[in-house]
């Protein structure tokens, strides 16, 4: 065995390929933390814009994430070319792996694409009260792959953005005002005009109910056991539940004071004598 020749080969490798590998490792050690720092800077600047110019945090979070991944991929590809590695073989390998990984994470890719769609269409934002995919709640956070909402009974639900971006979404808080639809049933023996006036006066006395448009109460149906009065009122979105509960309680008290009865379901039975 010619040790001199082996040593010369090792020296040649160290002075060429070895140096390149060392440089590549140093670049990785320096570049990746630097890229992470740039990503954090984007998020930090985004938070300032959120406070001053009301920029949605989902926007700068996504930009930060995409920038970090793109820059790291660019560094790795540049180093591969610097090391003189045949990129055609790597490209074929990556393509093959990409197909397999794509099939394995199809749902994740769908959620990522859905997150990007929500980012651009903006059907809701943090703090909005929405209904989607069978759930209702307040949006607490919008991530790139899912959306976090808190339901009325304080449950945390993570909705996949893939399904969310293609489903029907009801945003209850996008508008400043909201209509509360109230229905009150009274007996056929009661004066419906008097009952309607009581409902309108009760609505007019509630400070959380807007008076433009003015509250109204009209007969909406002749039901099997009652006459139904429909009373649509408008309020600020944040007052919706207070108005609903307050009106139901106050109208019941006003009906009791004025002798207006709320009937039970009843069935008339006719006896036939043979």
Oligomer: single chain
Could you state the order of secondary-structure elements as H and E? HHHHEEEEHEEHEEEH
- Average of pLDDT: 81
Distance between the terminal alpha carbons, to the nearest Å? Answer: 126 Å
Tally the helices: what do you get? 7
**Unreliable stretches, pLDDT < 50, 5 or more residues?**
none
Give me the count of strands: 9
Note the main sheet: 5 strands, antiparallel
Q: Strand order within the widest sheet?
A: 4-3-2-1-5
Shape: elongated
Structural domain tally: 3
Strand content: 15-25%
Helix content range of the residues, please? 40-55%
Q: Given the helix and strand composition, which structural class is it?
A: alpha+beta
Alpha carbon gyration radius? 34 Å
Structure explained in plain terms:
This protein is of the alpha+beta class. It folds into 3 domains: 11-104; 124-171, SH3 type barrels, CATH 2.30.30; 177-257, Alpha-Beta Plaits (2-Layer Sandwich). Helices cover 54% and strands 19% of the residues. The protein contains 7 helices and 9 strands. The chain has helices at residues 3-53, 57-82, 87-104, 106-121, 161-164, 192-205, 240-257; strands at 129-132, 135-142, 146-150, 156-160, 170-171, 177-186, 209-210, 218-222, 227-236. The chain has a 5-stranded antiparallel β-sheet with strand order 4-3-2-1-5. 17% of the residues are buried. The mean pLDDT is 81.
């Amino acid at each position: 065995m010619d040790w001199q020749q082996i040593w010369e080969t090792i020296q040649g490798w160290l002075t060429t390929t070895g140096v390149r590998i060392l440089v590549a490792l140093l670049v990785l050690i320096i570049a990746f933390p630097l890229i992470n720092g740039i990503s954090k800077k984007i998020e930090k600047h985004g938070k300032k814009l959120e406070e001053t110019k009301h920029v949605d945090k989902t926007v700068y979070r996504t930009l930060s994430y995409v920038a970090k991944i793109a820059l790291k991929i660019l560094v790795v590809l540049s180093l591969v070319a610097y090391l003189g590695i045949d990129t055609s073989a790597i490209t074929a390998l990556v393509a093959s792996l990409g197909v397999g990984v794509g099939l394995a994470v199809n749902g994740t890719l769908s959620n990522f694409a859905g997150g990007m769609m929500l980012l651009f269409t903006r059907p809701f934002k943090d703090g909005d009260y929405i209904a989607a995919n069978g759930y209702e709640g307040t949006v607490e956070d919008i991530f790139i792959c899912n959306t976090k909402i808190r339901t009325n009974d304080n449950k945390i639900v993570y909705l996949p953005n893939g399904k969310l971006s293609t489903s029907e979404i009801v945003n209850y808080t996008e508008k400043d005002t909201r209509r509360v639809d109230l229905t009150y049933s009274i007996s056929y023996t009661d004066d419906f005009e008097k009952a309607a006036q009581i409902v309108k006066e009760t609505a007019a006395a509630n400070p959380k109910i807007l008076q433009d448009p003015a509250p109204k109460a009209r007969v909406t149906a002749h039901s099997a056991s009652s006459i139904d009065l429909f009373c649509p009122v408008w309020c600020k979105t944040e007052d919706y539940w207070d108005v609903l509960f307050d009106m139901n309680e106050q109208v019941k008290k006003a009906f009791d004071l004025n002798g207006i009865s709320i009937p039970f379901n009843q069935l008339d039975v006719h006896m036939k004598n043979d």
